[in-house]
Amino acid sequence: MSADRYQALANSALGGAVVKRLGLPAPPRLDRHEPGMPVVTGPVVFGEARGGRLREAVHEVMRSIGARLVDAKTAGDGDDRPAALVFDATGIDSTQRLRALYDFFHPTIASLKRNGRVVVLTTPAIEADSVGAATAQRAIEGFARSVAKEIGRYGSTAQLVEVAAGGEGAMESTLRFLLSARSAYVDGQAIHIQAADSVTVPEDWERPLAGRSAAVTGAARGIGEAIAETLAGQGAEVLCIDVPPAGEALAEVANRIGGTSLALDITDAGAPQRLADHIGERGGRIDVFVHNAGITRDRTIARMPPEGWDGVLEVNLSAQERINGALLEGELLGDDGRIASVSSVSGIAGNRGQTNYATSKAGVIGMVRALAPVLRERRVTVNAVAPGFIETKMTEAMPVGTREAGRRMNSLIQGGQPVDVAETIAWLVSPASGGVNGNVVRVCGQQLLGA
Amino acid sequence: MSPDALNDAAVLGGNRIPFARRDREYAHASNQDMFTAALDGLVARFGLQGERLGEVAAGGVLKRSRDFNLTRECVLGSALAADTPAYDVQQACGTSLETTIHVANKIRLGQIESGIAGGFDTTSDAPIELNDDLRELLLDLNRTRSTTGRLALLGRLRPGQVVPAIPRNEEPRTGLSMGEHQAISTKRWGLTREEQDEIAVESHRRLAAAYDRGFFDDLVTPFLGLERDGNLRPDSSMEQLAKLKPVYGEGSDASMTAGNSTPLTDGAAAVLLSSDDWAEAHDLPVLAHFVDAETGAVDYVHGESGLLEAPLYAVPRMLERNRLTLQDFDFYEIHEAFASQVAMTLKAWQDPAFCKDKLGLNEPLGEIDREKLNVNGSSLAAGHPFGATGARIVATLAKLLAERGSGRGLISICAAGGMGVAAIMERRG
User: In terms of DSSP bridges, do strands A237-242 and A157-163 run parallel, antiparallel, or are they unpaired?
Assistant: First the structure.
């Protein structure tokens, strides 16, 4: 874990006072999940706009996670302050009725605990009965993203979850993730849940990946290492893949998490076949494939050598396409198969000096969106995460100015940790996340850049 | 027990660290560091964390006396289950082919289901012993009770005794180094500089090509920043090798140089073996089976044989027992201690007089197709950490056979002390 000295200072007694007096931004301390922690650490206030369709489904999830549901009026003080506010906005069918948001959040938002959670549930605009309803449902996105910006300095987050008709029963894995400390650095996101015929309910929600096999590329260090570790911690048997020169670190990761190592340069022409053979020989299938391997070769387009362009596009995008092809062609993805790719906020917002990288990462988004409807027929999902500023060896090497700007320019006023990306991936690839398909979820603390 | 009643011993894969030239990347790595790394890389490849294996057998030539249980110490420091037993074997350059034989035999007898065979050697972190004079004096001192007696002994201390005894690459009974011994054989067999240099160039070229095509991606794990064997010279050429001065032998026909002899090397290697049932239960594919082996020795002290000639005798005995001819193989792995040893081996087996007089054969064993010999290079390019070479070769040959789909391979390794170890591996189609 990389050091954010300013955050440490701002959270100390003396430093905190100085930071406050000078009016400097004070990055909050984010809680992160630890084994045995409950999903929510306090009561949950549930509210709804009249005519909403998710009350039953939400209540069922709250029972499952053991959350204490309270009414807005009975929400307590002190330690009994609500840990989350969940609002079913699906009943809002006209712009006039958007007032229900104000009526619920105006009196309750101040009572939300630090590291609190806000989740607003909507219907996809495309499924709305009328133009007026569609307009209103879409309007809610602006509300949720703005609430996120208001509560970020307390370490709290707000998200919007769009639940398609038929997706009501598929919400649990997503609500568990968003309400818990596992989503610490995911903020201001709009997540779509599609209709799902059946959703696999894990026996143990601490280990939803038990009995599942997973492969992670770029697993020798950084975010890939955290992904491998998190998936293994949730029960998966993890195949750790990285380039041959990273073999020593790769073996160390594999041994630490009880997985296996495979030295493979994914850009080799023969790599998809070698991977397919390896999976075929070792158990015959893989349930989860995480495309994490990525490189940067930053240069402005005018100064970029051709190999800087080709290398980045190859590793970050083309290799993923070829591997997906081999997995699907060989029918190597198990039932309820999951593919997750690591994109980047650069791929959404663009970044100076990263035409190659941003092209590759935007391409990942395109690939995920295009593949999702195709894979849906096979009961396979594909999603992407788009990390913002994550504290790794790579960011440690950045110039101070750029690094500090990257760290602070988001609603949570700090960089994320590799585990934040890993937890997000783990949610997306959970067998219980069958309704989550074709999503691009940013792990960026609601970075100011991009949409 | 008839051979048919025995289990098959399967080779599932291997792992080694890149071999380093003496006093380079591994200058400060101990045998224990290196073999633990080789073990951990193997464990990672096959997901053996916490697994109790039948045994781990390994060894090295240059060991400190305190490292009597070194392999067991490596197991305890590795990701394997701590209740995996281990033992050390030392048979010079044949060490880890010999440990492979031990593990394979136990698997064949059904005494164990799985095991790791390996070896290691450091020429950099070498053991240095007390000078024998000083050692004897100190032992006498320990045995003496009276103060006057002790003082008398201490009076025998001399500055010269401080000079330590450094291990040397020489045969105790002849005082000749291995290279000097082989120089005698080179002369006797009339081996030319050119044929030796050709073997060396080919070794480097083939090892480099194998690395380039990713052959070693699942056989080698980088260690201490070294990703490929430090001795490898992909651009080695006859012209370059021709410039080197002979280092062994005397006279105008001396032909053994640093280029066609293996350098002192540090490294470690390990091979995973099991029964077919164990492999299947663990979802691990079998690369090849370990069929038979033969260890031999020659009297190089009093007899006419050269120090490194034992495989010349061990291989034909093994072929005879298996009713095979020398040509019944798809791959030949002849350890390149010196290019001259390989050239001598090939020449001897084609020599009617040698085959008749020494081997008692009516016909010579015949020629070996050079395209099947050391196809991915051998010790001249990779280097030769004595204890690790056998395991390197077993893993390489097993993968070659797996890539080919079916076939048979022969291993021949010469060893100090006038010994040699040979083996047959096979992949049934």
Answer: unpaired
Cβ <8 Å between B218 and A282:
no
Q: CA of A357: how far to CAs of A43, A349, A444, B113, B319, in Å?
A: 43, 12, 17, 50, 59
The residue length of chain A stands at 451
Backbone dihedral angles phi then psi of residue A256, each to the nearest 5 degrees: -65, -40
CB A332 within 8 A of CB A286: yes
**pTM for this prediction:** 0.91
Question: Closest partner residue to A263 among B40, B217, B285, by Cβ?
Answer: B217
Residue ranges of chain B assigned to CATH 3.40.47.10: 178-214+291-427
Helix (H, G, I), strand (E, B) or coil at A287: strand
Domains in chain A, please, with CATH? 31-193 (3.40.50.720), 213-443 (3.40.50.720)
Q: How far is CA A409 from CA A7, A414, B373, in A?
A: 14, 8, 63
Q: What torsion do the CA atoms of B92, B98, B100, B103 make, to the nearest 10 degrees?
A: -130
Topology, domain B178-214+291-427: Peroxisomal Thiolase; Chain A, domain 1 (3.40.47)
H or E stretch at A21 = helix A13-21
> Residue B290: beta bridge partners?
B425
Instruction: Give pLDDT tens digits for A345-362.
Output: 999 999 999 999 999 999
Interface of B with A in 223-252 (CB under 8 A): 223-224, 227
Residue B199, Cβ neighbours under 10 Å: how many? 25
Residue-wise pLDDT for A74-126, tens only, equals 777 777 899 999 999 999 999 999 999 999 999 999 999 999 999 999 999 99
Question: How far A396 CA sits from the closest chain B CA (Å)?
Answer: 22
Say how many C-beta atoms besides its own lie within 10 A of residue B127's C-beta. Answer: 16
pLDDT block averages, 10 residues each, chain B of length 429: 80 98 93 97 97 97 89 97 97 97 98 98 80 82 86 83 73 88 93 96 98 96 96 95 92 91 95 98 97 96 91 97 97 97 97 95 96 98 97 98 98 96 96
Residues of B whose CB is below 8 A from A263: 217-218, 221
User: Virtual CA dihedral for B364, B308, B335, A248, nearest 10 degrees?
Assistant: 160
Tell me which residues of chain A, numbers 220 to 239, contact chain B at a CB-CB cutoff of 8 Å.
Answer: 237
Task: Write down the H helix ranges in A340-399.
Answer: 345-349, 355-376, 393-396
Start-end of H helices in B213-338: 238-242, 276-281, 310-321
SS3 B70: helix
A241, A243, A248: which to substitute to probe chain B, counting the most B Cβ within 10 Å?
A: A248
Closest Cβ–Cβ partner in A251, A281, A282 for B221: A251
